[in-house]
Amino acid sequence: QVQLVESGGGLVQPGGSLRLSCAASGSIRSIGTMGWYRQAPGKQRELVAKINNGGSTNYADSVKGRFTISRDNAKNTVYLQMNSLKPEDTAVYYCNAGGITSRWTIFDSWGQGTQVTVSS
Length: 120
Known about the structure:
The chain has strands at residues 2-7, 10-12, 18-26, 28-39, 46-51, 57-59, 67-72, 77-82, 91-101, 106-110, 114-118. The protein is mainly beta. Strands 2, 4, 5, 6, 9, 10 and 11 form a 7-stranded mixed sheet that branches.
């Protein structure tokens, strides 16, 4: 009942920037934590960054200082600003959100994924 739609992926050169967006929609009463995960070919999916409903953030060590996660609660949207991109950032990036539906059930939803490719 809660859908996440991502946008903003693409091809960028090393050192470049991209901003990913993820908008949640549906029967939402409350969103707790929103996060970004990524999965490179042959690798496990890993947490990139997350942000809770109080604005507290956590980042993977590999992206600290380069990526910034933020959210707009009024729009149920989370963003990932990615700067100083490296080839090792190449992956499919997935948005995740957990919370409570309007019918008082717990949801844990994932976006469809957006490809980020960093290459010259």
